[in-house]
Amino acid sequence: LSGCSAFRASVKPGDANTATPMSADYDFIDMKWFGENSANLMLDSDFIKTMKAVPTFVTMGIQNRTQKHIDTKAITDTMRGIVMDKGKGQFVNETQRDNLLREQGFQLANCTPETRVSIAKQTGANYMISGSLVEMKEKSAREVRVSRKEDVYYQVTMEITDLTTGLIV
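RESULT FIELD:
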């Protein structure tokens, strides 16, 4: 008598910060953790602690070396926000370079000298942040009446390179 209504699914709002993962797939919690952990490790490093001036960074991305489509830019976006909020770094906007140059060209050709921005006055980065995300899988042997269990581990490796010397700092 109840038909399909007995199996109706429901959706309830939840807090993404306290949600627990339901699968071995990469999700929002993983992304948030990687970004926050990377920022905290960076902020706790002697490299940052011994800086006399606030360094300027450019993020060149994290290579996705998994077999899944993962938005690795979200990791560096999270990290960048934390570092900037703490006042320990400033970042050039590498994703908008072409738009910045296009706007400067427009202003140079079409705006009065009093209102146009100065050309060739952008701040250059001192340090480049790059890295990689890898996925490692471990499968257990199939047991009687038990499904095979699969554990998936993700590792993010990030590095800061001094743009003057080319050394990883």
